[in-house]
Amino acid sequence: MIKTNNIICVLVFLSLTGCAVGPDYKKPDVIPPTTFKEEANHWKLAEPRDHTPRGKWWEVYGDIQLNALVQQVAISNQNIHSAEAQYRQALALLGAARARYFPTVTGNFAHTRGQGTSSTNSGVTIPGNPTAAITDTNRLLMSASWEVDLWGRIGRTVELNQASAEASAADLQSALLSVQSTLVQTYFQLRINDAQRKLLEQTTIAYKRSLQITQNRYEAGIAGRSDVVQADTQLKSTQAQAIDLGVQRAQFEHAIAVLIGKAPSNFFLKPSSILPNLPEFPAGLPSELLERRPDIAAAERRIQAANAQIGVTQAAFFPSLILGASTGYQSSLLSNLISLPRRVWSLGPTIAATVFDGGLRSSQKEQAIALFDKSVADYRQIVLAGFQEVEDNLSTLRILSEEAKVQLEARQSAQESVTLFNNQYIAGTVSYLNVVTAQATALDADIRSLNIIGRSLVANAALLKALGGDWRERSI
């Protein structure tokens, strides 16, 4: 008994001091630009902080209806439910991996009835001899087995599943941020559509007045029939434009319904021409904002999982050690089964190793190394794509801001042109074609201004997504 205890102590000590094979994880190097082109001398490099709060970033637009819609995404969107279920699955796999640290204990009861063997006078054993006694055997056993993690295989497996679970959690946050951003951008496009429709309706009212004036002048013999036809054509074309906007609006409304987990037939968003606020980004935004992106965090943790998988495949080259023990009772009678004379037990280690596998383990290790290299490349590509996404939207906002100033001047000139040509037409110095042309130019300038606002709102929301959330959340 003393020797057995000594063996067990040595094995436990080895399990606690055993080395984990395989490389320890080290974050891969990434060489991003030192600054963003659009924010030169303001951005700095820092460490990933994907756990930093992202805030209710959509509230910066000051739209109550939008706030209510975005809140429903986490509750009803089916893509988010799918990502959440995948995260729970990853946690369950992690729990299963951690369970390998502990022994497995099983219990069983068996009752058998059978005929044994008997021997002849010559000493030859005759199996199944009819003269042999038929006996009953009852067994009540409890056994335990525990794999000693000498080479760190279990530890690496836990590390792998831990990293996979964290990557799955980041995937969930990435999916949530993506759906929220898509909803916000779609909502902006719908509101711009409403504003354009209102503009066309107001323009239609103005064109009706122009048509009435032209008809009055025609009836008075001052204007020709061609002027009436031109005015009527312009009015009908504008009315057609307003109707056509309904197709696009219906599609935006249907998309929003699906994003919040509702059937399009059960969702209606009341038209409103009030546009959301367009927030301005302050100069010198910290680079920590980009580092909160959950897709970057997920990619990095997949590298860690792939690194741990290398350790798992390397541990397969070494023998495994399993400590086993069992105890219980065995008797032909149930009445005296649980008694000291009927007690049986066993205790001892088992060492198992694969002697030949035709290169299977080597191939599995090469596969794990290749997966690690792929994960590193994917991570670096996602980081570069993140920098590109920020740069794209920063430049878009800057250029649209400049364009909006010029377009405002164009609108003012177009409105002045309409007034001048109207007066000249009434005075009889120009034809009605000049009035129609000026009005069409003014309407086009108004629509372009709305389009610039809409594109700016969409780019603004895309930049917030690229930065991982609200820039005002500074808790690190």
Automatic annotation (TrEMBL):
This protein's major location comes to membrane
Q: Which UniProt keywords apply?
A: Lipoprotein, Membrane, Palmitate, Transmembrane, Transmembrane beta strand
Record membrane topology: Lipid-anchor
PROSITE patterns given for it? PROKAR_LIPOPROTEIN
Q: Which residues form a coiled coil?
A: none
Localisation per UniProt entry? Cell membrane
**Entry-linked PANTHER family:** BLR4455 PROTEIN, OUTER MEMBRANE CATION EFFLUX PROTEIN
The record's comment on protein family reads:
Belongs to the outer membrane factor (OMF) (TC 1.B.17) family.
Q: What is this protein called?
A: Outer membrane protein OprM
Q: Which organism is it from?
A: Candidatus Nitrotoga arctica
